[in-house]
Design brief:
Oligomer: single chain
Shape: globular
Strand order of the largest sheet: 1-3-2
Number of helices: 16
Structural class: mainly alpha
């Protein structure tokens, strides 16, 4: 919004001091982080006081965990702090006509609504189960359909490729959505490029690291493109649903989901920057995605919001994010990875989320299996999700969170390194 205002002022009144800064993505991303932090820190305290005054406190089930009873009555629904700290700077610092920004604003708002309804039922209607699981899934499916449909059919979501490489990849002239773009290499070699509408994505660890989902469809290439939606839309729905629910499961002890989400957000911001930069994308041999530079700004908002919320959410937490925060963070991370065509890196980048989710699946499956076979259910872990297992073993939650953060940082570094390991 501000960049449009600055452009209007320059057009009508000429250049003025600082007007050129808004053309730099690094400046707008830096300003977004600062603004997001200010919103989190300034509004956060007031929102917490309001939540406490309205007695919007967390209801704690007795799970036999150390220090659990002291958390009773801690204000919840603090995810509103995260939502405001993301959306306000994003709307101010991003180009609002950018399709990627539009999709991220829709993702944030939609998941926030689902999370709010869930928290509202838990807090105000005193129903500990919250929103029925089927309705959560329906909401996540709708979001997955929106994202997948945009990726497949919106002409502004495109990949810039050399025309020779595009032909080798099986792209036809009908897939081209822009006029030819001519660039020159340092040695003087002229290169012809164009923007193409395709569902190609990056595959880690492979030398030729591009995969077109249409290649996975049976039949010839044209038939594969025609029926691609039968594969692509369900896959994107699974990604959105899995990551969103995994983030929700991870939000079990003070600062865990917040810190891990901030680490993932910073990594996705780096991936957005190199994907939007022609030189960096060419050097790293990854897909060049024009327009995704605005996702750098959004990722900056996400990181600032997580750091700012951590001010109040770190042990001992003054506020919990609730499902309004955790479901939204998971949805945002999934959407960013999909839009950047890095969804196949999610198992590594979101490794903490994956392990937490997997621990619950394994625990439930093993319990049901042993109950059916032996007449009594047995457990793999002392308790799931995994962070509760370590709590049951007597480890303090601060140490658990810190160690999970360290693992999250290692996974983030490994994710970035995959850009060169082929």
């Amino acid at each position: 919004m501000l960049i449009n205002l600055v452009d209007w002022l320059k057009a009508n009144f000429g250049h003025f001091l600082g007007s050129g800064l808004f053309q730099y993505i690094t400046f707008r991303a830096g300003a977004a982080i600062i603004l997001s932090l200010i919103i989190s820190l300034v509004l956060g305290g007031r929102i917490i006081k309001f939540l406490r005054k309205q007695q919007i406190g967390e209801t704690i089930r007795d799970l036999g965990l150390e220090g659990q009873t002291s958390k009773k009555g801690t204000p919840t629904m603090g995810g509103v702090i995260i939502i405001l700290a993301i959306l306000v700077p994003c709307l101010l610092m991003s180009k609002l006509d950018n399709i990627y920004v539009i999709l991220m604003v829709v993702t944030t708002s939609w998941m926030a609504i689902i999370g709010f309804v869930d928290d509202y039922i838990k807090v105000f209607m005193k129903n500990k189960e919250g929103l029925s699981g089927r309705y959560k899934i329906i909401g996540q499916v709708v979001l997955g359909v929106i994202i997948a449909t945009a990726m497949m059919f919106n002409p502004d979501i495109k990949v810039r490729m050399e025309t020779n490489a595009a032909q080798e990849a099986g792209l036809a002239e009908s897939d081209r959505v822009s006029s030819f773009i001519y660039t020159e290499e340092p040695d003087g070699t002229a290169i012809q490029k164009a923007d193409y509408k395709t569902n190609v994505t990056n595959v880690p660890f492979l030398k030729n690291n591009h995969l077109d989902y249409a290649w996975l469809m049976p039949g010839d290439q044209e038939s594969g493109k025609k029926w691609l939606w039968l594969l692509y839309i369900p896959f994107i729905i699974i990604v959105v649903t899995a990551v969103s629910n995994a983030a929700n499961l991870t939000d079990g002890i003070d600062g865990l989901a917040t810190g891990v989400s901030g680490i993932i957000g910073a990594t996705l911001g780096i991936l957005a920057y190199v994907s939007s930069n022609a030189i960096a994308a060419n050097y790293l041999n990854i897909l060049h995605l024009p327009g995704t530079e605005e996702l750098v700004v959004f990722a900056a908002c996400l990181v600032g919001a997580c750091i700012g919320f951590l001010w109040y959410n770190a042990f001992p937490a003054q506020v919990f994010m609730g499902d309004m925060g955790s479901l939204t963070l998971g949805g945002i991370i999934a959407a960013l990875a999909i839009l950047l065509r890095k969804e196949l890196l999610i198992p590594m980048l979101c490794g903490i989320f994956v392990v937490e989710n997997l621990s619950v699946v394994l625990q439930v499956a093993y319990f049901k299996y042993t109950k059916r076979k032996y007449g009594e259910g047995r457990r793999i872990f002392l308790m799931s999700p995994l962070h509760h297992h370590y709590q049951k073993k007597g480890m303090h939650e601060v140490k658990i969170v810190t160690r999970f953060w360290i693992v999250g940082i290692l996974l983030a570094v490994m994710t970035i390194i995959t850009l060169k390991i082929r």
